[in-house]
Amino acid sequence: MRHHIVACSLAIVLCATGLASGDVFKVGGDRLVTMQNNDGGWDWPLSDRSPKSSNAPNILAPTSMGLVQAYLSTGDPNQLAALEKAGS
I need a labelling partner for 78 at 20 to 30 A (CA). Which of 30, 58, 68, 71 fits? Predict the structure, then answer.
């Protein structure tokens, strides 16, 4: 069910923005890299832009999974570094 929701959401974004699927993964992955906290996790909600705050542990795995999908689509080394940071 979750994968279906993600796929539908991406389809809507693609239609609304006219971006190719690789571009969507690049933009989404870059946003996760930018929003990552110093401890390797992310805040909830993903909007405070404070890298010093601690992560929300319950979203670490699903957010990392999204970043994995972005990295697999783009091969971006910054996304890989963020994944390694999340893993530590």
Answer: 58
pTM, rounded to two decimals: 0.71
pLDDT by residue, tens only, the chain of 88 residues? 555 555 555 566 555 555 565 688 899 999 999 999 888 999 887 776 677 777 788 888 999 999 999 999 999 999 999 999 999 8
Sign of CA dihedral 71, 77, 82, 84: positive
Tokens of 7: 């796929």
Cα R_g (the chain), whole angstroms: 13
Exposure string of 63-81, with b = 16+ CB inside 10 Å and e = fewer, is bbebbebbbebbebeebbe
The domain locations on the chain are 20-87
